[in-house]
Amino acid sequence: MPRFATIDVGTNSVLLLVAERTSKGRFEPVLERAEITRLGRGVDQSRRLSPEGMEATLEVLTAFAQEARALGAEGIAVSATSAARDAQNGKEFLDAAQHRAGVSVEIISGEMEAQLSFASVHMDFAQETSGPLLVIDIGGGSTEFIYGNKAGQVEFRHSYDVGSVRLTERFIHTDPLSAEERERIASFLRSTFSTLPPPPPASALVGVAGTVTTLFTVQNRIEPYDALRVQGGTLLRSEVEGLADQLCGLPLEQRRALPGLQPKRADVIPAGALILLEALKALKVDRCRVSDRGLRWGLLAHRFGAV
């Protein structure tokens, strides 16, 4: 069966998907991997990708491309999102990726990022929901909201420049967070999300990307990570409130030791939890389904024609 690969280069992490097209035209995963490289460290202030962030990301990108080729991938699609969009030296990263990894990286817009995330969610959740779908994609540098119908048509999408890395660097300077820092983040998010239109009645919210999956694994003490237990799970707003209180109140070293939390994500997860909590409040919903999949799966459908 033909195989294809997608690599999602985000502000905080790099994700690899190698998938095989079945005889029925659908894709089944062969390999999925993720590494935190923090490409977007410092970009919010400097507007430039740091040498350290680029080097760490290029090492992982090169290794992922080699793995995909070794598994017989006929094509590799690579996307980069918020950090690469914002950086003045993004072309330097693209040129280095072509030279070292032999791949062409496409910097996609926030709107395209939203479209691809919705496509992934629609493939997995449309059949089990009775009403419209809402999608929230919380990344390191940006957060996308998408409203769509069961037919897969997007009716609203918007990308906000708020993400777990960006807000951590902008607002958090004490360990653990001070009450004032937490309130500044929450106030900023309330103001930012106030422009969201009311979602359609009876909508089901699905969250994608590492913040949401991490909150679910911490809530349920899932360690090591198990995609089968994460995919399709549910986070209640009351649980997210409790997680935000816990994560904001713990020092960094204690967060790193929490079951279900990758140590490299411990510094930015309080901001991520606050983003999800304020999003739930803004949307006036009391629960969020959890998707282990995301942009890389939407990119697979977009570039290689999943059915």
UniProtKB/TrEMBL annotation:
State the species of origin: Stigmatella ashevillensis
> Under which name does UniProt file this protein?
Ppx/GppA phosphatase family protein
| Alphabetized Pfam families for the sequence | Ppx-GppA (PF02541)
Q: What sections of the sequence does the record tag as coiled-coil?
A: none
* Residue stretches making up the Ppx/GppA phosphatase N-terminal domain: 20-301
